[in-house]
UniProtKB/TrEMBL annotation:
The keyword S-adenosyl-L-methionine does not apply. Residues 39-156 form the Cyclic nucleotide-binding domain. The lineage of its organism: Eukaryota, Metazoa, Ecdysozoa, Arthropoda, Hexapoda. This is Potassium channel KOR1. One of its GO terms (molecular function) is protein-containing complex binding. Gene3D superfamilies: Jelly Rolls. It comes from Papilio xuthus. Keywords: Ion channel, Ion transport, Ligand-gated ion channel, Transport.
Length: 162
């Protein structure tokens, strides 16, 4: 559980904080993740903040399946706290995702099918989910940035296309 979540749940004062200050706390807490993802490097700060406000917190317990193999994601998933195991049906090796790592970015820019491994929580995890539809709706105001991002992501994933 993150410090922000603990504060939200246990501190009665947090509920009395004005919405604008809560917004700043969320941007401060999660903005660092967005700024580390290469696809968002060229995005202006105000757009990064808008994207951060779209993030949805999701909690998974140990052994919960986050994404099943060969199923496309419904958006970008960022590990806030925890460890995820990435198991490919093709490769016997297991890779791990930790705080700040992300996956599912291809779903933000296309609905085409790509080979995807299964992702399972190794311990209790808090993930940040960016819904692809909410992201696409927001990016309609920034078509040049969206298509530049799409080009980057699709070129990275083209060998995995089904």
């Amino acid at each position: 559980m993150t410090k922000l979540t603990i504060t939200e749940k246990q501190n009665g004062c947090f509920h009395a904080i004005p919405a604008s200050l809560k917004k700043e706390i969320i941007i401060s807490s999660y903005g660092k993740y967005m700024s580390r993802i290469p696809y968002f490097y060229d995005f202006p700060q105000n757009l990064i903040e808008e994207i951060v406000l779209l993030l949805i917190e999701e909690v998974y317990l140990e052994s919960d399946v986050v994404v099943e193999a060969s199923l496309s994601s419904d958006g970008l998933i960022i590990v806030d706290v925890g460890v995820l195991a990435v198991r490919s049906s093709v490769d016997e090796n297991t890779q791990y995702l930790i705080d700040g790592d992300y996956f599912g970015e291809i779903s933000l820019v296309t609905d085409e099918s790509y080979a995807s491994p299964s992702v399972v929580a190794m311990i209790s995890c808090k993930l940040l989910f960016l819904d692809k539809n909410a992201f696409r709706n927001m990016m309609r105001r920034y078509p040049k940035l969206f298509f530049a991002m799409k080009e980057q992501i699709v070129s990275k994933f083209s060998p995995l296309k089904l």
